[in-house]
Write a structure and sequence with these properties.
heterodimer; A: alpha+beta; three-stranded antiparallel sheet; 5 strands; 20% strand; B: alpha/beta; Alpha-Beta Plaits; Rossmann fold; 2 domains; seven-stranded mixed sheet; 14 strands; 30% helix; 29% strand
Chain lengths: 141, 309
């Protein structure tokens, strides 16, 4: 059928815990998609990853039907996990909160490469290092 | 509880950094929406990459809100030293029953002479005993009866279908056409889709509408039919002009038995000539066009001549 795209929304949310509260409810209800249908399906697909942030990219069609695919966790989530910190720095220029090794950056880059649209692992590593710096996390050899 | 919606419109490059920051403040995460989508302009497989995105997060509007907003502004200020960044916008949002709110987008529709499509949760509708009622919930498969192309197909189906027919629904989506065919008296419907979710949804919807015995929903495409000897009294093909033309080049007409009929949807007026030309090449004769009132969606009815014609 003529599937015409009405909206594309990515929800960066906790695996296995989708519910109609914000941000999911307001983000999806305005487009008229079956909210509980999405939550059930998302929770089923991410049930084995509770504790992670697993983004879902939802494509909403003009008739209110939708599809979604799961994406890799946000870079900052992976960086914080690898560096063992809870939060990034509030002022990255002045205050450093942790360290990442180049090897850890490479691991994150491998994981994120498909979603970053990066052509090479090296290009993805550059993007990851940039994000780490903004969070006040140093990259060391 | 009330909420404060924080939103920023950013370019593709800044979106991840801003989303990550808002993730720390927002309740349960963030929503990132691609901007500039023109309704009815993009097919699923030709969506251009996002150039601008709106990132939204929601803060509980409680006594900590002013402080959180201030900290967020400060953090975004730091970030704007690295990227040019607009100021965040803050809007109050009332708590709503979002689990129900989306349903206001759907209403029952009456189509053709007897067809009546309703969302499953709307039960207090007035129907006559002759009505053919189909109950469907919008979900993860296309076809809720709200799309003009689907509506035109349903009207054509009601006019064309002879009771006892064996029907093909190629690209069944939610199964709406297959279910309508079953309720209008088809003996059997072979429903195919290349999307496994659509196959599952068609089976579920067929079951809920009490027509599961008449419908076989399978994962498959035209190729899987051509290798079998199956030929149909009526083929329903509500997909897209481009795909219909491709399938015509791949012997689509052969799945219709001589003397059988076919209904094609998912095309616009400007595509209709090209689709009709493709139908002729695969041995089908276009017989009638139905055009959306005040719109440009078209459904084409065609037939396959008898071998001795």
């Amino acid at each position: 059928m003529a599937k015409k795209v009405k909206a594309i929304v990515t929800l960066q949310i906790n695996a296995g815990k989708a519910n109609p509260a914000p941000p999911i409810g307001p983000a999806l209800a305005q487009h008229g998609i079956n909210l509980m249908g999405f939550c059930k399906e998302y929770n089923a697909r991410t049930a084995n990853r509770v504790g992670e942030i697993v983004p879902a990219q939802i494509t909403i069609f003009t008739d209110g039907s939708f599809k979604f695919e799961l994406k890799s966790p946000p870079t900052s989530f992976l960086i914080k996990k690898a560096a063992g910190v809870d939060k990034g720095s509030a002022n990255a220029k002045l205050q450093k909160v942790g360290k990442l090794t180049r090897k850890q950056v490479r691991e994150i880059a491998e994981l994120k490469k498909p979603d970053l649209g990066a052509l090479s692992t090296e290009a993805a590593m550059k993007a990851i290092e940039g994000t780490a710096r903004q969070m006040g996390i140093e990259v060391v050899d | 509880m009330k909420w404060i919606e924080v939103s920023l419109s950013v370019d593709g490059e800044a979106a991840e950094a801003v989303s990550d920051l808002l993730q720390e403040y927002g309740y349960q995460g963030v929503a990132i929406e691609q901007e500039g989508i023109m309704p009815e302009a993009w097919d699923e497989d030709n969506v251009p990459p996002a150039t601008r995105l709106t990132v939204r997060a929601y803060l509980p509007d409680d006594e900590t809100a002013p402080q959180q907003m201030q900290r967020l502004k400060t953090a975004l200020g730091h970030m704007s030293l690295m990227y040019p960044m607009p100021q965040p916008a803050f809007y109050p949002v009332d708590d709503k029953d979002w689990a129900e709110a989306w349903k206001v987008h759907y209403k029952p529709v009456r189509l053709g002479k007897r067809l009546f499509i309703r969302p499953r949760w709307i039960t207090d509708v007035e129907t006559s005993p002759d009505d053919v009622v189909i109950a469907l919930d919008p979900g993860m498969a296309f076809g809720t009866g709200t799309h003009p192309s689907t509506q035109l197909c349903l009207q054509a189906l009601e006019d064309v279908l002879k009771p006892g027919s064996v029907v093909l629904d190629l690209g069944c989506g939610s199964g709406i056409l297959a279910i309508a065919a079953a309720k209008l008296g088809a003996a059997h419907i072979h429903a195919l889709d290349i999307d496994p979710i659509a196959v599952q949804v068609t089976q579920d919807n067929a079951h809920d509408n009490g027509v599961a015995p008449q419908i076989t929903a399978l994962h498959g495409s035209l190729d899987s039919l051509l290798t079998s000897a199956r030929r149909f009294d009526l083929a329903l093909v509500n997909i897209l002009a481009r795909i219909i033309i491709q399938m015509c080049d791949n012997h689509l007409g052969e799945v219709v038995r001589p003397g059988g009929r076919a209904i094609f949807g998912g095309l616009t007026l400007e595509q209709a000539d090209a689709v009709e030309a493709a139908l002729r090449k695969t041995g089908l004769v276009p017989a009638k066009r139905r055009v959306q009132p005040d719109g440009d969606w078209v459904v084409i009815e065609a037939y396959r001549p008898h071998d001795d014609d």
